[in-house]
Write a structure and sequence with these properties.
Length: 552
């Protein structure tokens, strides 16, 4: 059964008169009267308020860019419109129209909606849960969000699917292979193969092979920054560490901007099941954890810009004390802040295999999410790596594939993998461990994808050619510190050094610039540790800002 069927009462709660009066104090304007059939807002519109219905009714529908429409609910007095998009003025995924009797409703723009959520504990919890459940319901619904049109294993289709999934944005894929709707659409529009994939936004706009940033702008995921605004804290990277800083700093009243070049959740977001994070005995997917943190950060008013890469920290020595720090951005813009938190984590290490880049996204993957699992269902695959992230991916993928070759350079898994994962893998009949082995060559082409991998036994030198279309690589991570270009001290492996020169423990040698999580030298490369540092740095930011005010 769908969420809409099982959790309807929590998804569309009816506030009682006392709750309505409590909420009224937080409204962003007086009640507004809508005529019968009048549109309150359309799909894709930004900065639309959440409306609390006082009289009449409001019909909520969802539709996609091809005009397919589905009714969600008819709201009555005491109910409110909106989902998590409303927390930050992102493009809305549903439309609202006054019913046959018209409607009278109270508006709550993003800031006032957040004030209501924070200002009223129980009522706030009821409303926050409803907003989250509505997004989850939209994610499982067919008719909503973006439509991708292209071949399922096309590298750009995979890239966009991963981007949309990792950012919890609903989407469907119309396969152009075969004679289905996707094929007919491409024929009708006369789209050339090199223009694929298409992306159809809910407002009907059609993009041809869009970048993630173009897709995000069209879908209202990426919110334009306010030029010249000086934040108390700018966080580079919205992985577990950066998200923790965003939540704690915003909940303590600081103005926060968190930027991520790809998606919230970072490395953890790519994990199918995190079982050793405190408080989740049955485990939680990295994406679910990231989704919760993202909603939490938004509730407290943190601004999260995704996808937006930070290309440089301006660490010009002539900057006067107290003058804001400046971050240069991939879209040519800049962000200003009194403090900067480096939470850019680590990126997947690329093995020294010739022509590997040709196959990245075309058969070679550094993570194993539901998107990749769907692509290699029932096939023979190989996975390289002996650490926990590799182990988790084996446990996740093995039940979905025909055979999984687990390739490690060492004699076995004991030196690098947690016991529980080794035991799980041992119980999987279709997993074959290849010790003392490495991949030395790949065959195929980007247009058609990977077709085979050459495996060499490191002791005997014997080579085996394995026919396979999917190869997963989990061979460690290197710090994402290139964008800092010598602004801060790094250790011999490139991790950022903090706590030197009597600075605050998480502060770099550059005053007001902090580093946390996997990118920090000496940090423990675990979700809980990253979250811990993300929380701990906020107290140090307060201390720094306090110092600024006393010297000003
Ligand atoms: C597959 C996998 C499974 C794992 N499983 C577990 C587990 O079960 N338990 C556990 O405790 N740990 C696990 N880990 C480790 C854990 O995920 C990391 O320790 C944790 O994610 C580190 O968090 P972080 O925020 O410091 O960095 P990251 O998670 O690396 O996040 C950094 C973020 O910064 C962004 N970024 C980087 N550079 C820039 C830039 N220039 N501009 C803008 N954004 C930028 C990236 O896009 C990324 O989103 C796993 C790791 C992997 C890869």
């Amino acid at each position: 059964m769908s969420l809409l069927e099982t959790r309807q009462a929590q998804m569309f709660p009816v506030l009682d008169p006392v709750q309505v009066e409590t909420a009224r104090r937080f409204a962003s304007g007086p009640p507004r009267v809508f005529q019968p059939g009048e549109l309150l807002y359309e799909v894709g519109e930004r900065n639309v308020p959440s409306w609390l219905l006082l009289e009449g009714n409001i019909a909520i529908t969802r539709h996609d860019g091809l005009g397919r429409t589905e009714a969600m609910v008819v709201e009555r007095p005491g109910q409110f419109t909106g989902e998590v998009s409303q927390l930050a003025g992102r493009g809305t995924l549903a439309a609202a129209r006054a019913g046959p009797d018209g409607a009278t409703a109270l508006p709550f723009d993003a800031a006032h909606l957040r004030a209501l959520l924070i200002g009223t504990a129980e009522l706030g919890e009821t409303i926050m849960r409803a907003l989250i459940l509505r997004r989850m319901s939209l994610l499982e619904a067919g008719v909503t969000g973006a439509i991708l049109v292209g071949p399922p294993d096309h590298p750009d289709v995979v890239r966009l699917e991963v981007f949309l999934s990792r950012n919890s944005y609903p989407h469907t894929l119309l396969d152009v292979l075969g004679d289905g709707e996707g094929h007919a659409l491409v024929e009708r529009m006369g789209v050339a193969p090199d223009e694929l994939p298409l992306m159809i936004c809910p407002n009907g706009t059609i993009l041809r092979r869009p970048s993630n940033a173009e897709a995000a702008s069209c879908l209202g995921i990426l919110i334009p920054l306010v030029p010249g605004k000086v934040y108390d804290v700018a966080v580079v990277g919205a992985g577990p560490a950066g998200l923790a800083t965003a939540v704690y700093a915003a909940s303590e009243g600081l103005s926060v901007l968190a930027l991520d070049q790809r998606a919230t959740g970072g490395q953890a977001g790519a994990s199918a099941r995190i079982e050793n994070y405190l408080g989740f005995p049955t485990g939680i997917s990295g994406q679910a954890l990231a989704g919760r943190a993202w909603n939490q950060a938004q509730k407290f008013g943190a601004e999260i810009a995704v996808p937006l890469e930070v290309t440089r920290l301006d660490c010009d020595a002539s900057r006067a004390p107290g003058q804001p720090l400046r971050l240069e951005l991939g879209d040519g813009g800049a962000a200003l802040a009194k403090t900067v938190v480096i939470a850019s984590g680590a990126r997947y290490r690329r093995p020294a295999i010739p022509n590997i880049e040709e196959f990245e996204g075309a058969g070679v993957s550094y993570w194993a999410s539901a998107v990749e699992a769907k692509l290699c269902e029932g096939e023979e695959v190989a996975l390289v790596g002996g650490g926990n992230s590799a182990g988790q991916a084996v446990v996740f993928l093995a039940p979905k594939v025909e055979r999984l070759h687990l390739i490690v350079r060492g004699p076995d898994l004991r030196a690098s993998m947690s016991r529980y994962l080794i035991d799980r893998i041992a119980a999987l009949p279709n997993v074959e461990l290849h010790p003392h082995t490495e991949i030395v060559g790949l065959e195929g082409a980007r247009s058609t994808g990977l077709s085979a991998a050459i495996c060499r036994h490191r002791q005997t030198g014997e080579e085996v050619r394995r026919t396979l279309r999917h190869l997963f690589l989990f061979i460690g991570a290197d710090p994402n510190a290139g964008w800092l270009q010598g602004c801060v001290e790094t250790d011999d492996k490139g991790f950022v050094v903090t706590g030197a020169q009597a600075g605050l423990p998480l502060e770099t040698a550059l005053p007001g610039v902090f580093a946390i999580g996997d990118v920090r030298a000496g940090s423990t490369k675990r979700v809980a540790a990253a979250v811990g540092e993300g929380a701990a740095v906020v107290a140090q930011i307060h201390a720094f800002l306090g110092g600024l005010t006393t010297t000003a």
